[in-house]
């Protein structure tokens, strides 16, 4: 099974940023890997390890913001379809400098 954690935490104040960093470090320390910004996943072996991890997660959720948890089977997780957008063409790669006075 896989546990997917989705979160949207405020980052307005220094306290918010500290809570965000603390929660992210908790996820990384406990074996979660980042799939996208604010989306992390972890492989769990059975229901008991899933329950234990969920309890640890509940103890470390920041007081503000939104955290969602989804448990899926490996078969469901393997059926993820990835779509990648086209390359950005607005970036100018040049060594020339322009100075307007």
Multimer state: single chain
Distance between the termini: 61 Å
Say how many strands there are: 4
Structural class: alpha+beta
Order of strands side by side in the largest beta sheet?
A: 2-3-1-4
The secondary-structure element order is EHEEHEH
Uncertain residue ranges: none
**Mean pLDDT over all positions:** 88
Rg value: 19 Å
Note the overall shape. Answer: flat
How would you summarize the topology of this molecule?
Elements lengths: L1 E7 L5 H16 L3 E4 L2 E5 L3 H13 L6 E7 L1 H5 L23
Key phrases:
101 residues; alpha+beta; 34% helix
In short:
This protein has 101 residues and is an alpha+beta fold. The chain has helices at 14-29, 47-59, 74-78; strands at 2-8, 33-36, 39-43, 66-72.
General description of the model:
There is one protein chain. The chain is α+β, with helices and mostly antiparallel strands and 101 residues long. The protein has a single domain, classed as 2-Layer Sandwich (Alpha-Beta Plaits), CATH 3.30.70.240. The protein contains 3 helices and 4 strands; from the N terminus they run βαββαβα. The chain has a 4-stranded antiparallel sheet with strand order 2-3-1-4. The longest helix has 16 residues, at 14-29. It is flat, with a radius of gyration of 19 Å.
């Amino acid at each position: 099974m896989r546990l997917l954690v989705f979160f949207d935490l405020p980052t307005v104040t220094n306290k918010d940023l500290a809570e965000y960093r603390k929660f992210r470090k908790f996820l990384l320390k406990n074996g979660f890997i980042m799939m996208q910004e604010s989306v992390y996943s972890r492989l769990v072996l059975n229901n008991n390890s899933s329950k234990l991890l969920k309890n640890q997660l509940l103890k470390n959720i920041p007081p503000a913001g939104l955290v969602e948890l989804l448990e899926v089977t490996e078969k469901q997780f393997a059926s993820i379809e990835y779509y990648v957008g086209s390359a950005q063409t607005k970036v100018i790669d040049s060594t020339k400098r322009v100075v307007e006075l």
